Amino acid sequence: MDMLTSPEFWLAVGQIIMIDILLGGDNAVVIALACRKLPDAQRTKGIIWGTIGAIVLRVVLIFFALTLLKLPYLKLVGAILLLWIGVKLLVPEDEDEHGNIQASDKLWAAVKTVILADLVMSVDNVIAIAGAAEGAGGGHQMPLVIFGLLVSIPIIVWGSQLVIKLMDRFPLIITLGGMLLGWIAGTMALSDPAVLPRLVPGQSAAPALWHYGAGVLGALAVLVIGRLMAMRAAAASR
């Protein structure tokens, strides 16, 4: 239980919860669309079972992601994907993105739809959460992932609408979330087994200055690229 007294553990838990809230808006939309035709008595069951199934599936995917991140160059690939996910948060979304989600009036058909749709849409969450868990170190990654996801379940299921309204009212939350993903991307790239030995020979972990510098660089990259792309999208829509 020594991990519960580690500041790195609780920092990573906070990052995982924030990532799941920011990237969980899609999940809330999928759940609502897939369960909208269920009878009122079954709608809550559909939401709960669909969410549980999606979370279990995500834990399995993250387990494989954490294993793969130990291979050379894969953290670099993950960092690039994270940067792109962070940039996408800052660019206006396509309103018709979820138009192909099929609703069902059968409970388990709706649950299956939620789980399958979440599988397709989970790449961003899995990479981001695996990156945050990697930052905690100490061999506590999977307990950290499971704990963070369990804490985030009620937030996604019952608090998603409130979170969405807050993000609409305070766009700075989305910007900070995108920059958080950029921070994780920067530190993840630096810790890649193919990068760290070349930059810091003989060290198993990056010095604090390098670590924070890479994080700041990643956060600024998301901010700058995201703002430029948002301006270009706004100009194109006129």
TrEMBL record:
Alphabetical list of InterPro entries matching this protein: Integral_membrane_TerC, Integral_membrane_YjbE
Main subcellular localisation: membrane
Keywords: Membrane, Transmembrane, Transmembrane helix
The organism's place on the tree of life at top rank: Bacteria
Protein name: TerC family protein
Pfam families: TerC
Ranges that cross the membrane: 12-35, 47-67, 144-163, 170-190, 210-230
Keyword set includes Transmembrane: yes
NCBIfam families: R_switched_YjbE (TIGR03717)
Family of this protein: Belongs to the TerC family.
Compartments it resides in: Membrane
Lineage: Bacteria, Pseudomonadati, Pseudomonadota, Betaproteobacteria, Burkholderiales
